[in-house]
Amino acid sequence: MKALTKLIALCALTLSLFVSNNANATTFTFTAIPDEDESQLRTRFEKVALYLEKELGVEVKYIPVKSYSAAVTAFRNNQVQLAWFGGLSGVQARKLVPGSKAIAQGYEDQFFKSYFIAHYSTGLAMSDSFPDISQKTFTFGSKGSTSGRLMPQYYIEQHLEKKPQQAFKRVGFSGDHSRTIAQVQAGAYQVGAVNYKVWESALAAGKIDTNKVKVIWETPAYPDYQWTIRSGVNAQFGEGFADKVQAVLLNMNNPELLKSFPRSSFVNADNKDFEPVLTVAKKIGLID
Amino acid sequence: MPQLQQVKNTHYPLGYWQKVTVLIWLIALLIIPFADIEIVNFDPLLELTLMAQGLMAPDFFATEYLFQAVIQTINFAIIGVCLGLVLGAPLALIYQHPIVSSCCAFFRAIHEIFWALLFLQIFGLSPMTGILAITIPFAATFARVFHDIINQSSDSPLESIDSRADIISRFTYGKIAQVLPQLMAYTRYRFECALRSSAVLGFIGMPTLGFYMETAFRQGNYNEGAALLIIFVTLIGTISYWCPPKLMMVYFIIACLTLVDIPAVDSSLLVRFISQDILPPALVNVGTFAEVQWASLTTWFTDLLVEQAIPGGIATITLALLALAATHVVTLNAHALASRQLWPTPLTWLGQLILLIGRSVPEYILAFIFLMLLGPSMLPAVIALAIHNGCVIAYLAVKQSNAIAPQQMQMSKFNQFNYHIMPNIYPNMMALLFYRFEIIVRETAVFGILGIMTLGFYIDSNFSEIRYSNALVLITCTALLNVAIDILSRRLLKFPKSSQTRC
What we know:
A: alpha/beta, 2 domains, 17% strand, globular, B: mainly alpha, 75% helix
């Protein structure tokens, strides 16, 4: 027994040598949460880090986060200097760190949209006008999501002229777009709002039974995901650093890297592009 | 003849514990009509098939950096427990002071997740956040339980110690020496709890197993999720093999060495948090006391109370009371399932395995599975809480009931169990249940993050909307609610002083 105990201790000590981490104050750190497929985050984004490191000539590190609010916090606390934010989280972050700039967005993000999806038992079908969904049960995605929460809630309030809590029989937050699809498909909620890209790729992957759940409405286009860089990076990493990062991001054309986000390419962006998101967030009371 | 008549008519009053049991159920039955426990699901079969397939074919290679995640889960738990001991053990000595005990009750009442969400604002995604989130509530729990253990120990060894001995020696040899095995056993049990907490902290971003577990389940990668659950349950089930108490110190040192690097603490963040973030909107940017707009401050507070704290509080209490009754059922059944008094030993191993799974799988994951099965109401949370807590209580109760000597009478095993073992163990079981009630109330918080509208839901919303002042008020409400429930249940129940139960 004693020998066994010693053996365990020895193994533990040896193994501990393999686990090491080091961070550096001069490391340029970024974070990103893709809107679909969050598996193998580090493995995938460390490749992006490697690309940035090669192009920028500074040490680049990726840190994985769990939620948009965690990404905003990390950005605000200068734990990350660059972040791939959703529309809403980007606006929140730039408001908290004045001088921060949106420098690039996904090509698709210039005209993003959300789908409203419904279980077949509701009898609702695709229409161009806002569907009659009052007093149904409804699920958003994650609380901080632009496509799963902010924009759908805005259009609901516009058309039904009520807060979701009053307009629906039950309101839920599934926490994730693929959950929203699964829950509406299972009938747990009658209607839901989902990121159109997640829907399209789940459809392509054969994960959706269109006899059970279908798209009934799509929102008008709005801007969504973008790269935001923190104010003060020029002081920390040298004059013109922000512009350099912008150029490097816009030039990222390796399909494997782009697939992690997943976007077809990155295009120019500006803080002004996201004014609509800020206005909507203020209107529904998510930002004061 | 008249004598026989008398025997027939003898009226047996309900015993104390029978009354308590009836009361729990009466309350639950009264609440049910008002609770949201609707089953709304048309075809859960598709998702269930996927989950079953995942469990059948767990994929142990789908998770990146799996080894690191396991190590960090253990590290947070070990360091959290050790620091909790260092802070909590001295507090146990002055726990009788009302200020100390109420402070501890308050700190204990706040869930690890909320501690972590608060520390996240100050330390960021640093291991400090996770460790402190475990240390603080654990220290408060150690203080209370160690105090109870020491208090309940006998005074007689003190009398045999030379009266000239100094107070420290008297206390050490007269009191501590006597209860040391109990203190050690409790610490070992808390280590298991710390491992669970450590995993749960992954749900909000700490680099532990929970990080990957949450992602896997949320995104429907059940093969990966099943593998992570199996690893986690095995880790908890084999604690006694890989972490014998003697090696605790060795592990502590290894844990400190292999911890993710702690970035330097930026004190300005702490200042900003205290001087800006947690201030109500009406007080930010206010220079002098005279400038304070009392009207807007009052409106802010009233709105928060009426729109969030009160509905959240009601949902929290409803959920907790229903879960209490459901836990009672699960406890009785799970205890019977694994009792050596009822089954031959090999069969009890199976029972023990069920208890291990029931108490190790995080409630969040359990609730998630039942949510897919039963639809979004309070029901999945009730069931998840009942399974988890019922299995914890049953696990502790089985340990006690296995030690009871069977009566030497001609009696079937079934009768023996029901008329000898159960009456013996029941008071302890109920005391554990009520101790666990405090934990049930704080655990309702986790379901808020899953979308069940307890106080935890509103706290989580405020964190995601970056309204820390609101979140802090609601966290305080949660803690006060918990303390109030604790005091109330103690007053109502008046536990016999000698009951030495805790979990």
